[in-house]
Amino acid sequence: MDKVLTERQRVTQRRALDGRLVVLCFGAGVDSTGLMVALCAAGLRPDVGQSFYDDLADDDWPE
After folding, report:
1. Quick one: which H or E segment has residue 51?
2. Is residue 62 part of a domain?
3. d(CA 35, CA 29)
4. I need a surface site. Which of 17, 25, 41, 62 has the fewest CB within 10 A?
5. Closest by alpha carbon to 8, among 41, 40, 45, 30?
6. TM segments (predicted)?
7. Looking at residue 27, what is its pLDDT?
8. For the chain, how far is it from start to end, CA to CA, in angstroms?
9. In angstroms, rounded to a whole number, what is the distance separating the alpha carbons of residues 32 and 30?
């Protein structure tokens, strides 16, 4: 994980999120996966557990 973020990026991310509630909605896409990897690389964990949303389930709803 050392090569994912530079030390400056790790420090900046920790400072930006210090004292804030961190919620990660994980949908298994590129953006949410990248965010989860970046948080892990910075040594941060979400305060609220990840959730998974299957947007294909929307196809079951009548129009």
Report:
1. strand 48-51
2. no
3. 10
4. 62
5. 41
6. 21-44
7. 77
8. 45
9. 6
| Neighbouring residues of 28: CB distance < 8 A, sequence distance ≥ 6 | 52
- Distance, C-alpha 15 to centroid of its chain: 16
Is residue 63 in some structural domain? Answer: no
Please identify which residue in the block is written with the tokens 């961190």.
Answer: 22
Cα(55)–Cα(57) distance, integer angstroms? 5
**pTM score:** 0.67
Domain for residue 58, yes or no? Answer: no
Q: Measured between alpha carbons, how far is 35 from 53 in angstroms, rounded to an integer?
A: 16
In contact, 22 and 44? CB cutoff 8 Å: yes
